[in-house]
Amino acid sequence: MEGMATVKVQKNQIIAKQKDKVRKWYIVLEGMVIQRNSYARVVLGKDSVIGISENDRYLCDYIAGADSVLAVFPFESADDLKAAIHGQASMRSTLLRAALNQRQMLLKTYAGFQNLVRQFHSFVENEYNDYTSFCARYHLEEQSFNRIDNFKPLEMVHRAENWEVNNSASLTQGYLEEYLRLMQKDDSLCIGAIMEACYQTRRVTQGIIEMAEYLSYNREILLSTAGKDIFALYYDLLMQANAKNYDVKPLTDNMDRMAEVIKKLGIYEEKLVTARVGSYQSQDFSVANGAYAEPEAAEPEDEEGNWEDEADSTGEDCLLHILTFAEYEEKEAEEIRSLIQKYLNLPDILSTEPEAFGLRKRLTQVFYDVYQKVFMKAVKDEDGLTPILEMFLNFGFMDVQMAGEENANVLYDLTEHLDVCRSEHVYTIYDWLKSVYEGRNEPSKNEFDMDYPAYLADMRKNGKITQEQQKKLMANSEYKVKYEMQNMFVSGNRVTYGKISTFCPILGEYDLINSIDKMLVTAQKLEDAINKVRAIDYSVFYRETQFSDPDKGINREMIMKEIMPDIILMPNAGTRAQMWQETAGVRRDTSARFMFPIFTAVDIDDMMIETMGRYRWEICRKIQGVHWNDIREKSLTAEYCDYLQFYRKNHELSPEAKEKVKSALLRGRNNYREVFVKDYQNWIKYESKGSYRLNKVTREILIAYCPFAKAIREELKTNPMYESALHRFDINNVKKIQRIQGVYDKYQKAGGKITQELVDNLDYYSL
Fold it and tell me: What would the pLDDT profile of 14-44 be if each residue is shown by its tens digit?
């Protein structure tokens, strides 16, 4: 491509990673690229464009399927297309053709998934209904299978309409060349057609991901590695009917058909299908004497291998199961059961009267005592973990009556899909505590802002431990994780619940005000919420870190690096998120720690904006140290403190604006951070869209320290409320880029290599 950089990539090389910022588009000139996420994959051949189905972040991974050559050009908004296609007819044709062909290819993939999802849901429901009919026909008792009660059809969020599918098919199959000729006549027409196809492609890609996740989440209802599925229901029924010499041909015919469909669905590992179907097909179900008995009413049996008692959480005493694992004596277990029953028998379980308060306090002590015992045993032998124990460790579930039978069954099924609550930076509370125990993360600070080494030093200073004990405890996994449980876990669980006066750590039905699947806080929901804010406040997680290479002339160059926060899901159905600490330790280049409830009915986007506002304030305080409120050392917190402290004398504020500041301080109880957080929420939700909520002084501070992303800045440049501040911002950015490029040129001449972190640093000033 004329004037465009080209890169060579080797087979299996990663070109772009899911969730990375989209900064470039790549055109496949030679070879092929695999577009994939966790569940689906699409092959992109010659003239395909990587990035065309994304917006701010890549939705998928892009990996070279063969040695390939790619043309590269910067892309962050539609404006970047102007430079790419202006005066280049071949580029217009290539990009537009790629956009239309990729849209059609993904629409076909979408339609295939749509049919598969419909077939899967219909087939599962029909097979279960047939199972109940067979049970009645043979007069044999149905197995309990509560999971079917929670099996619902998929409600699509990102959907493609039939007219879109038909329109794209007609265009690409019959009128593509004609359409291309028309759209290439004008830059605006061409860019509009490309971007329109991009937006559709993105929505279609998101829809494919939705459907693939639905199949992945629900496929085990039909066939699972645990063997607690519809195929097992039929197999068990077949064994019972055959043992009684009944005519089982209708059942075997049905199972043969089911086996064929399972193979054709293509959503199961071949090894699993071969093992389960092979086990069934190896059995001989012919009747030895050649005569069939008439089905008759049968007494319920408790045959060996019957998994009815294990198929859901209500088939056994969950509380006893947990307490037995924790090695409580029978008498202690009964005392705990009695305590829970007293709590459930209260006339008003959410009362703040002394009796209710006292019961909650005792139950809280019991919960954390049990949790510590179960965790310490489980982390040393995870093979002993059962779904009920996982429910306790990850969700705070202890008792069926307390959580409600239906909720308990949904939670039981959810333990098979806990991966939806995990990612590189998202942990369930059990995963987090395990990471501390294994040394992958250090314990968090306690409520007094004291980290683990400082806590031990304080203990030694006060004569509670010796210097030798301090040294041993620094490396003691059990003591570290106990510190984390007794501090961060206990406090964070209470705070994220939201209603501190009625907090009980045992999961209760009264808190699950919506269906569990809707309340569940998944890693994807959290990442989507974070990315929505990052698309506006692009620099929120960037920090200055030091780069040095003295041999090549760089002694100390400060570069910008993005450091994403760790998010810990607390085991409650809560209403609040918490910014627990702005860094993981003394070092500034470590992840912040946020806490969210694992279930919530509150809008996650709103919770995330508030949490990131608090993070903005606290990370500035951390970096500035003792100068955090010293106006001589310019910073976000220093300027905000100065503004709020002297707002009455500020001539830039009208009397009405001053009155609003006074009200904001009253609402925030004179806490400057809380006033800032409210302003930050307005900055992200409204000001970024050009809707005024802030006064002039606040806006100037936020533009300087929490600037909008480039695309938003461009939209607001013509707005007189932002014009001068954004102009100053752009001038400063240009100066920084020129200085950095000068440093890099000198570094390269001295033999230095421009690493990815140096490239990212320069790219930062173009965001």
Answer: 998 888 888 888 989 999 999 887 666 788 8
Amino acid identity of 249? Answer: K
Exposure pattern of 731-767 as b/e (b: 16+ CB <10 Å)?
Answer: eebeeeeeebeebbeebeeeebeeeeebebbbebbeb
Contact 111, 104 (CB under 8 A): no
3-state SS, one letter per residue, for 3-54 = CCEEEEECCCCEEECCCCECCEEEEEEECCEEEECCCCEEEECCCCEECCCC
Backbone angles phi, psi at 52, to 5 degrees: -70, -20
Surface-to-core class of residue 19, CB atoms within 10 Å of its CB (0-12 exposed, 13-18 middle, 19+ buried):
middle
For range 127-139, the mean pLDDT = 94
Dist CA 437 CA 234 (whole Å): 43
> For residues 103 and 168, what is the distance between their CA atoms, to the nearest angstrom?
8
Map residue 62 onto helix, strand or coil.
Answer: strand
Closest listed residue to residue 515, CA positions, set 217, 152, 764, 163: 152
Alpha-carbon gap, residue 45 to 250, rounded angstroms: 48
Distance (Å) of CA 365 to CA 358, 429, 506, 569: 11, 18, 11, 21
Rounded to whole angstroms, how far apart are CA atoms 39 and 374? 34
102 neighbors 48 (Cβ within 8 angstroms): yes
The count of residues in the chain is 767
SS3 at position 299: coil
Strand runs labelled E in 533-692: 542-549, 554-562, 566-574, 578-581, 593-600
Decide if pLDDT at 79 tops 80: no
Spatial separation of the C-alpha atoms in residues 248 and 693, rounded to whole Å: 73
User: Which single residue is written with the structure tokens 């065309």?
Assistant: 52
Residue 427 CA to residue 375 CA, distance in Å, equals: 15
Whether the Cβ atoms of residue 80 and residue 129 lie closer than 8 Å to each other = no
Residue pair 688/678 in contact (Cβ under 8 Å)? The answer is: no
Contact in structure between 664 and 694 (CB atoms under 8 Å): no
In the chain, % helix, strand, coil (3-state, to 5) comes to 55, 10, 35
Burial 363-384 (b: 16+ CB within 10 A, else e): bbebbbebbbbbbbebbeeeee
- State residue 529's pLDDT score: 96
Q: What is the DSSP string of 427-460?
A: EEHHHHHHHHHTTSSPPPP-TTS--HHHHHHHHH
User: What is the residue type of 589?
Assistant: D
Give, in order, the Cα–Cα distances in Å from 482 to each of 368, 433, 436, 661: 11, 9, 10, 44
Cα 555 to Cα 84: distance, rounded to the nearest angstrom: 38
Tell which residue, 166, 164, 190, has the closest CA to residue 179.
190
Q: Cβ distance 222 to 124 under 8 Å?
A: yes
Give the integer Cα–Cα distance in Å for 465 and 17.
Answer: 49
Task: Provide CB contacts within 8 A for 566, sequence distance 6+.
Answer: 425, 426, 427, 432, 441, 584, 591, 592, 593, 594
Among 285-294, 544-553, 604-613, name the one with the lowest average pLDDT. 285-294
Residue 360 token pair: 């909650």
H/E stretch holding 521: none
How many Cα neighbours within 13 Å face the side chain of 551? Answer: 3
Dihedral, CA of residue 743, residue 744, residue 750 and residue 752, to nearest 10: 130
The contacts found for 418-422 with CB under 8 angstroms, 24 or more apart, are: 418/390, 418/394, 420/213, 420/217, 420/520, 420/522, 420/523, 420/524, 421/394, 421/520, 421/521, 421/522, 421/523, 421/569, 421/598, 422/523
Q: How far from each other are the two terminal CA atoms of the chain, in whole angstroms? A: 25
Q: Please enumerate in sequence order all residues whose Cβ is within 8 A of that of 741, keeping only pairs 6 or more positions apart, or say none.
A: 762
Instruction: Tokens 């496949």: give the residue.
Output: 28
Phi, psi torsion values for 33, nearest 5 degrees: -130, 140
Tell me what pLDDT residue 116 has: 93
Please give the Cα distance from 1 to 92 (Å, whole number): 11
